[in-house]
Amino acid sequence: MKLASRRKGRDGELLVVARDLSSAVSAAHIAPTLQAALDAWENVEPALKNLYALVNAGTASGQFTLDQAVLDAPLPRAWQWLDGSAYPQHGELMATAFSRPKIEISFPLMYQGLSHHFLGTGGPVPFPSEEDGIDFEGEFAVVTSDVPMAASRQTAAESIRLLIQVNDWSLRKLAAQEVKTGFGWLMSKPACAAAPIAITPDELGSAWRDSRLHATLEVRRGEEIFGRVPANEMAYGFDELIVHAARTRDLCAGTIIGSGTVSSSRYAEVGSCCISERQAIEMIAHGAARTRYLQYGERVRMTSYADGISVPLFGILDSAVVRPAT
Amino acid sequence: MKLASRRKGRDGELLVVARDLSSAVSAAHIAPTLQAALDAWENVEPALKNLYALVNAGTASGQFTLDQAVLDAPLPRAWQWLDGSAYPQHGELMATAFSRPKIEISFPLMYQGLSHHFLGTGGPVPFPSEEDGIDFEGEFAVVTSDVPMAASRQTAAESIRLLIQVNDWSLRKLAAQEVKTGFGWLMSKPACAAAPIAITPDELGSAWRDSRLHATLEVRRGEEIFGRVPANEMAYGFDELIVHAARTRDLCAGTIIGSGTVSSSRYAEVGSCCISERQAIEMIAHGAARTRYLQYGERVRMTSYADGISVPLFGILDSAVVRPAT
Question: Alpha-carbon distance B182 to A81, whole Å?
């Protein structure tokens, strides 16, 4: 299935979207919001699947032509956002560029992030200062069902309800201050943006295997293709990230768990999904970063593709960095 | 006003509680849940105040004798939990005991914590292993309205809707591993518990000034009074903690911002609000910690008192540490 949330109130209105993204229909009579659907998934999934069949046949009552501009993030607010850092190439480049020791741990890197607001596509994204080092991070994430504490890897894999695509906005100069505290990221991690379409794993065919998404993430900065990065080098699958997240705590339905910035060992050829990684590559190659952080007015556009699927997997995530309204 | 949530579904049912905590009445006809009330505070506050006057007069329709055991946490799940570390005495003891350098930053320490579940009073609290260093942390927190990014200190102060009392459960041995990552606390910070009653600042009279709560937090471990600690040494007021939290991001209605473990420079006399701090005091005095972490079966009870108020400010937060069900 493909699901989305039409902009409405704080949580949006649940839509079922046709496989080719051309049309959609309200599913509010089944569950008013995507969070409500996730809270009662076993009860609502059959009705949602029926509606998905109708919308794909073009025969759903109330079906309308879809303009992605009406869509908010799939979960405009979520109860939990835990972001991993599961692409080792990204970590190695950053550590090398900044001469930092490798982090010696036996578990996945993961932080608890702001979840009460996920920005949608098309909207301006205000940041308080260009001096904070405004950066994007293109990545994928899963949305889970309820997961019990100390869940097994199999339980974790079965808890994956949806996949989404995330831009984890980051303020790099504030991150450099916050890393000193050990308390994690707060000022340096404002609200993420999410592409408008959430998809169930069964939509992906062979592009979903080993609890990993085998897709390519394309990131454009203005007209430039900044990266067209295959997402096939995760050190941990999403099942393992969920096991880690649930090691000492229950997860609630609607928990979003991110992969961290998609990164490839073929970075010279395929590019990067964040500015900071490209700066690290430049520092290693030339001794200094050449690419600057985002300035007000710049646009970032992220889309994902998988073999055999003709449309962007998650729709188009398009954002403009702006000065805040005063 | 005093508000609470009766156990019901994922978010509880909103109650208005009499000032003396002896009785309560459902406010579900005004707002079904406390989160719903916070989402629409300006619209619902007058009706809640009217109901509070009736319940204090003993004349509210449907008023019932209150057994705190029927109460959940005020917000059984919240969109955001940001926990400060605003009592400098606590940080100094920990740094001295572990010979750690002082963290050189110009902003309050704060981390983003798990918010999708706050445990209520009276229930068993399962932890996966006694070997993880199970500890409590007694502290206070505020619940805010929507707060715009880059809010002023005055806006922040005016955004404080409610105060609550929190036990920030911590797994110290996992924290020692996680601090190395810079990514903050995840495994080491399972769900917090919250005392059942939320109160508006105007209930506190002179015990609420300078955006600080001037109360005493009593922590019992079993029959032992572990601490009876005056909460009057916050280095930052809650207004300043909110300003920090909103430096680069909007806060949503229902955001909970914690003070961090209450701690006093008179610790030798008044005790501590967490085991880890007492261990630090023992290490400094005797070269080694003598107090052990919690074991399965132990109970922790937290209550707060302010001058001139005859009942515990937030009711009683009573928890039993248990082995998880298998």
Answer: 17
